[in-house]
Amino acid sequence: MASPLARVLTVACLMLGTFISVARAAEVVTLRNGFTVTCQRREALSAETIRLYLHADSYMDVATSSIVSVETVADIPAPALTTQPTLASNGAILADSGARHNVNVDLLASVVKAESGGNAHAVSRTGARGLMQLMPGTAAQLDVKDSFDPASNVNGGSAYLDQLLTRYHENLALALAAYNAGPAAVDRYHGIPPYRETRAYVARVIREFNRRVAEQARAASATVVH
Questions:
Q1: Coil, strand, or helix at residue 142?
Q2: Which residue, among 73, 89, 98, has the nearest Cα to 17 in the 3D structure?
Q3: Beta-bridge partner residues of 28
Q4: Which residues form the domain of 58?
Q5: What gap in Å lies between CA 111 and CA 205, rounded to an integer?
Q6: What pLDDT, in 10s, does the model give residues 135-194?
Q7: Catalytic amino acids?
Q8: Residues forming a β-bridge with 23
Q9: Overall domain count for the chain
Q10: Residue 171, domain CATH
Protein backbone atom coordinates (compact mmCIF):
# COMPACT_ATOMS: atom_id res chain seq x y z
CA MET A 1 0.00 0.00 0.00
CA ALA A 2 1.22 3.48 -0.78
CA SER A 3 2.88 5.44 1.98
CA PRO A 4 1.02 8.44 3.50
CA LEU A 5 3.76 10.78 2.25
CA ALA A 6 3.29 9.96 -1.40
CA ARG A 7 -0.32 8.86 -1.68
CA VAL A 8 -2.61 10.17 1.07
CA LEU A 9 -4.26 12.93 -0.90
CA THR A 10 -6.21 15.97 0.20
CA VAL A 11 -7.43 18.00 -2.75
CA ALA A 12 -8.38 21.45 -1.53
CA CYS A 13 -8.58 24.96 -2.86
CA LEU A 14 -6.69 25.98 0.32
CA MET A 15 -3.41 24.50 -0.86
CA LEU A 16 -3.05 26.34 -4.15
CA GLY A 17 -2.49 29.95 -3.30
CA THR A 18 -2.17 32.67 -0.70
CA PHE A 19 -5.03 33.62 1.56
CA ILE A 20 -6.88 36.62 2.85
CA SER A 21 -8.77 36.82 6.12
CA VAL A 22 -12.27 36.78 4.61
CA ALA A 23 -14.00 33.56 5.66
CA ARG A 24 -16.74 31.59 3.93
CA ALA A 25 -18.53 28.29 4.22
CA ALA A 26 -17.30 25.39 2.14
CA GLU A 27 -18.06 21.73 1.53
CA VAL A 28 -15.72 18.82 2.14
CA VAL A 29 -16.53 16.02 -0.30
CA THR A 30 -15.18 12.55 0.50
CA LEU A 31 -14.70 10.18 -2.45
CA ARG A 32 -14.64 6.38 -2.50
CA ASN A 33 -10.94 6.37 -3.39
CA GLY A 34 -10.13 8.08 -0.09
CA PHE A 35 -9.58 11.58 -1.50
CA THR A 36 -11.24 14.58 0.09
CA VAL A 37 -12.05 17.66 -1.97
CA THR A 38 -12.72 21.01 -0.34
CA CYS A 39 -14.89 23.11 -2.64
CA GLN A 40 -17.07 26.21 -2.62
CA ARG A 41 -20.11 24.49 -4.09
CA ARG A 42 -21.37 21.56 -6.17
CA GLU A 43 -23.39 21.44 -9.37
CA ALA A 44 -25.11 18.39 -10.89
CA LEU A 45 -24.24 18.28 -14.60
CA SER A 46 -26.23 15.06 -15.04
CA ALA A 47 -27.36 12.09 -12.98
CA GLU A 48 -23.87 10.62 -13.42
CA THR A 49 -21.60 13.68 -13.00
CA ILE A 50 -21.11 16.31 -10.29
CA ARG A 51 -19.00 19.43 -10.80
CA LEU A 52 -17.03 20.58 -7.75
CA TYR A 53 -16.03 24.25 -7.83
CA LEU A 54 -12.68 24.63 -6.06
CA HIS A 55 -13.01 28.39 -6.45
CA ALA A 56 -14.70 30.80 -8.84
CA ASP A 57 -12.86 29.82 -12.04
CA SER A 58 -11.58 26.36 -11.14
CA TYR A 59 -13.49 23.10 -10.93
CA MET A 60 -13.23 19.34 -11.28
CA ASP A 61 -15.87 16.82 -12.39
CA VAL A 62 -16.41 13.58 -10.49
CA ALA A 63 -18.81 10.66 -10.88
CA THR A 64 -21.88 10.97 -8.68
CA SER A 65 -21.40 7.38 -7.57
CA SER A 66 -17.86 8.18 -6.36
CA ILE A 67 -19.09 10.56 -3.62
CA VAL A 68 -19.31 8.96 -0.19
CA SER A 69 -20.24 11.98 1.91
CA VAL A 70 -20.50 15.76 1.93
CA GLU A 71 -19.85 17.88 5.00
CA THR A 72 -20.42 21.62 5.26
CA VAL A 73 -17.72 23.46 7.15
CA ALA A 74 -17.45 27.11 8.11
CA ASP A 75 -14.66 29.66 8.38
CA ILE A 76 -12.67 28.45 5.39
CA PRO A 77 -10.36 31.27 4.25
CA ALA A 78 -11.06 32.35 0.71
CA PRO A 79 -8.17 32.31 -1.81
CA ALA A 80 -6.72 35.73 -2.52
CA LEU A 81 -6.73 37.02 -6.04
CA THR A 82 -3.34 36.63 -7.69
CA THR A 83 -1.79 38.13 -10.77
CA GLN A 84 0.39 35.08 -11.35
CA PRO A 85 -1.19 32.70 -13.89
CA THR A 86 0.76 29.77 -12.50
CA LEU A 87 -0.17 27.04 -10.04
CA ALA A 88 -3.37 28.63 -8.77
CA SER A 89 -4.84 28.92 -12.27
CA ASN A 90 -3.95 25.27 -12.91
CA GLY A 91 -5.46 24.09 -9.63
CA ALA A 92 -8.29 22.11 -11.19
CA ILE A 93 -5.87 20.39 -13.57
CA LEU A 94 -3.57 19.38 -10.73
CA ALA A 95 -6.50 18.15 -8.65
CA ASP A 96 -7.98 16.14 -11.50
CA SER A 97 -4.67 14.56 -12.53
CA GLY A 98 -3.75 13.81 -8.93
CA ALA A 99 -7.06 12.03 -8.41
CA ARG A 100 -6.72 10.10 -11.67
CA HIS A 101 -3.25 8.81 -10.87
CA ASN A 102 -3.28 8.72 -7.06
CA VAL A 103 -0.52 11.30 -6.71
CA ASN A 104 -0.56 13.91 -3.95
CA VAL A 105 -1.66 17.24 -5.44
CA ASP A 106 0.86 19.17 -3.33
CA LEU A 107 3.57 16.94 -4.75
CA LEU A 108 2.38 17.67 -8.28
CA ALA A 109 2.36 21.40 -7.57
CA SER A 110 5.90 21.14 -6.19
CA VAL A 111 7.13 19.30 -9.28
CA VAL A 112 5.45 21.81 -11.59
CA LYS A 113 7.07 24.69 -9.71
CA ALA A 114 10.51 23.09 -9.96
CA GLU A 115 10.13 22.04 -13.58
CA SER A 116 8.52 25.06 -15.23
CA GLY A 117 7.52 27.60 -12.62
CA GLY A 118 3.97 27.17 -13.88
CA ASN A 119 4.81 28.21 -17.46
CA ALA A 120 2.82 25.94 -19.77
CA HIS A 121 5.01 26.92 -22.74
CA ALA A 122 8.38 26.35 -21.09
CA VAL A 123 11.01 24.51 -23.15
CA SER A 124 14.29 23.35 -21.59
CA ARG A 125 17.67 23.30 -23.27
CA THR A 126 17.25 19.53 -23.70
CA GLY A 127 13.83 19.88 -25.34
CA ALA A 128 11.56 19.08 -22.37
CA ARG A 129 8.23 20.85 -22.70
CA GLY A 130 5.33 22.22 -20.73
CA LEU A 131 4.34 22.39 -17.08
CA MET A 132 5.94 19.09 -16.07
CA GLN A 133 8.72 19.30 -18.68
CA LEU A 134 8.02 16.11 -20.62
CA MET A 135 10.62 14.98 -23.11
CA PRO A 136 9.10 14.27 -26.57
CA GLY A 137 9.82 10.54 -26.27
CA THR A 138 8.27 10.32 -22.81
CA ALA A 139 5.25 12.33 -23.96
CA ALA A 140 4.76 9.94 -26.88
CA GLN A 141 4.92 6.91 -24.56
CA LEU A 142 2.32 8.54 -22.33
CA ASP A 143 0.09 9.35 -25.32
CA VAL A 144 0.41 13.11 -24.73
CA LYS A 145 -0.43 14.65 -28.09
CA ASP A 146 0.33 18.27 -27.15
CA SER A 147 2.86 18.89 -24.38
CA PHE A 148 1.94 22.57 -24.35
CA ASP A 149 -1.65 21.77 -23.40
CA PRO A 150 -1.67 22.09 -19.58
CA ALA A 151 -4.23 19.36 -18.93
CA SER A 152 -2.56 16.85 -21.25
CA ASN A 153 0.91 17.64 -19.95
CA VAL A 154 0.01 17.35 -16.26
CA ASN A 155 -2.04 14.22 -16.87
CA GLY A 156 0.93 12.63 -18.62
CA GLY A 157 3.43 13.83 -16.03
CA SER A 158 1.21 12.57 -13.21
CA ALA A 159 0.92 9.16 -14.85
CA TYR A 160 4.71 9.02 -15.22
CA LEU A 161 5.30 10.06 -11.61
CA ASP A 162 2.78 7.44 -10.50
CA GLN A 163 4.73 4.80 -12.44
CA LEU A 164 7.99 5.90 -10.82
CA LEU A 165 6.54 5.91 -7.30
CA THR A 166 5.30 2.38 -7.88
CA ARG A 167 8.61 1.28 -9.41
CA TYR A 168 10.59 2.57 -6.43
CA HIS A 169 8.11 1.34 -3.81
CA GLU A 170 6.88 4.82 -2.84
CA ASN A 171 10.42 6.12 -2.22
CA LEU A 172 9.79 9.75 -3.09
CA ALA A 173 13.45 10.75 -3.40
CA LEU A 174 14.19 7.96 -5.86
CA ALA A 175 11.05 8.64 -7.86
CA LEU A 176 11.97 12.32 -8.16
CA ALA A 177 15.55 11.46 -9.09
CA ALA A 178 14.24 9.17 -11.83
CA TYR A 179 11.85 11.88 -13.03
CA ASN A 180 14.81 14.23 -13.39
CA ALA A 181 17.64 11.98 -14.56
CA GLY A 182 15.78 8.91 -15.83
CA PRO A 183 15.19 5.50 -14.23
CA ALA A 184 18.30 4.07 -15.90
CA ALA A 185 20.54 6.46 -13.96
CA VAL A 186 18.84 5.64 -10.66
CA ASP A 187 19.14 1.93 -11.31
CA ARG A 188 22.77 2.25 -12.38
CA TYR A 189 23.77 3.97 -9.15
CA HIS A 190 21.30 2.08 -6.96
CA GLY A 191 20.04 5.37 -5.60
CA ILE A 192 20.08 9.08 -6.37
CA PRO A 193 22.71 9.61 -9.10
CA PRO A 194 25.75 11.72 -8.12
CA TYR A 195 24.65 14.51 -10.44
CA ARG A 196 24.63 17.97 -8.88
CA GLU A 197 21.55 18.99 -10.85
CA THR A 198 19.57 15.89 -9.88
CA ARG A 199 20.44 16.09 -6.20
CA ALA A 200 19.56 19.77 -6.10
CA TYR A 201 16.31 19.02 -7.94
CA VAL A 202 15.27 16.30 -5.48
CA ALA A 203 16.05 18.54 -2.50
CA ARG A 204 14.19 21.48 -4.07
CA VAL A 205 11.01 19.51 -4.78
CA ILE A 206 10.93 17.84 -1.36
CA ARG A 207 11.56 21.17 0.37
CA GLU A 208 8.67 22.78 -1.52
CA PHE A 209 6.44 19.77 -0.87
CA ASN A 210 7.17 19.90 2.87
CA ARG A 211 6.49 23.64 2.87
CA ARG A 212 3.10 23.12 1.23
CA VAL A 213 2.14 20.31 3.60
CA ALA A 214 3.13 22.43 6.61
CA GLU A 215 1.22 25.42 5.25
CA GLN A 216 -1.86 23.30 4.75
CA ALA A 217 -1.58 21.95 8.30
CA ARG A 218 -1.29 25.49 9.70
CA ALA A 219 -4.33 26.60 7.70
CA ALA A 220 -6.33 23.61 8.94
CA SER A 221 -5.26 24.29 12.53
CA ALA A 222 -6.23 27.96 12.27
CA THR A 223 -9.62 26.98 10.86
CA VAL A 224 -10.26 24.67 13.82
CA VAL A 225 -9.22 27.35 16.31
CA HIS A 226 -11.50 29.96 14.78
A1: coil
A2: 89
A3: 38, 71
A4: 4-225
A5: 6
A6: 999 999 999 999 999 999 999 999 999 999 999 999 999 999 999 999 999 999 999 999
A7: 115
A8: 77
A9: 1
A10: 1.10.530.10
